[in-house]
Amino acid sequence: MKENELEFSDWPMFDLLMTNEELCRELLEVVLDAPVSNIEYIIAENDIRPTLTNHGVRLDAYVKTENEVYNIEMQTVKRTKLGRRLRFYQGAMDTLALRRGEHYGNLPPCYIVFICLHDPFNAGLPVYTLNVKCQENTSVETDHGFTWVVLAASAWDRLPPGRLRNLLHYIATGEAGDDRFATKLAAAVRAANGDEAWRKEKMALLTFEEDMEIQRRMLEEDREDFEIQKRMLEEDREDFEIQKRILEEDRGDFEIQKRTLEEQQRALEEDLEKQKHALEEQKRVLEEQRRMLQEDLDKQEHIAVEAAESEGRTEGLEAGEARLGALLAALIESGRSEEVALVATDADARRARFEEFSL
Q1: Alpha carbon of 92 to those of 85, 116, 319: distances in Å?
Q2: Which of 171, 226, 264, 274 is most buried (CB neighbours < 10 A)?
Q3: 353 vs 127: CA distance, rounded Å
Q4: 278 CB-near residues (< 8 Å, 6+ apart)
Q5: Contact 45, 60 (CB under 8 A)
Q6: Is the pTM of this model over 0.70?
Q7: What does the alpha-carbon distance between residue 43 and residue 24 come to, in Å, rounded to a whole number?
């Protein structure tokens, strides 16, 4: 493929070639490996929008035959949620196929074909045929009437030799080889690119679309980064809430411990105050007992002194009488009885005689 030329997978070229009934019918027969009845009409870029406020669908190629309806999509960019996209496309097509009041049995068989340059499900398969099955019993027939086929052109070499392998090889590489249908497609692509006015117009649209796709991917990446940051903030908020609850619980425990300690402190202060009053009372009692004991001691001492004095006087009188008697006896024995009267009345004479007789 020359530079500045459209390839079969580019949407303007794909839409143009799919409006060719012969090419469109043969492509469907190769993909589905089944004959396709006469085509009644083909609508490229068919826009389906139930209401102005609802999400719409733009079908690359909507094909109506005598008995069936088909939708063929070309996906050059790998996008997520392809299964949801298929579901939405199916619902949109069904709204076109059934008029008001018609029975559901009038819904025609429906085939949706997605041709992807990349593997949309990352399972390594070249063909994904999706259907609704009963999980409990796969032999149950639901008779839903639709078939979804997703092709991964990048895995063309995993198919056995045949028309479908050759078609996917051409879509992935642009090389038609000796396959009859691929050669026919390649010739139609060359003829379309030969229309210079058409090619330039579509190349401009394709470039604009590519720019829009780049911006969309950038927005998606930014949105992914935002979602990551949002999740991180939510996790941080959850951690904060957990820590907050832990702190509140710790604060509750602290308040309980604080109240317990305050109650213990009040009880201790009350006990100390009681002990203080008891000690002061004991001190007062002891002081009173000491005072009374001191008074008793003073009284006993006074009594003892008086007794001692009384006893001393008595002993002194007795000793003085004995001493005087001894002096009188000494004077009489010494023949000095005339001095008896003198020593009895004269204290000086008496002391002198006591010294004389050593009494």
Answers
A1: 11, 21, 155
A2: 171
A3: 167
A4: none
A5: yes
A6: no
A7: 11
CB-based contact 1:7 (threshold 8 Å): yes
Question: Which of 147, 151, 52, 81 is closest to 109 using CA atoms?
Answer: 147
Q: How is residue 273 written in tokens?
A: 């105050």
Provide CB contacts within 8 A for 57, sequence distance 6+: 47, 48, 49, 88, 89, 92
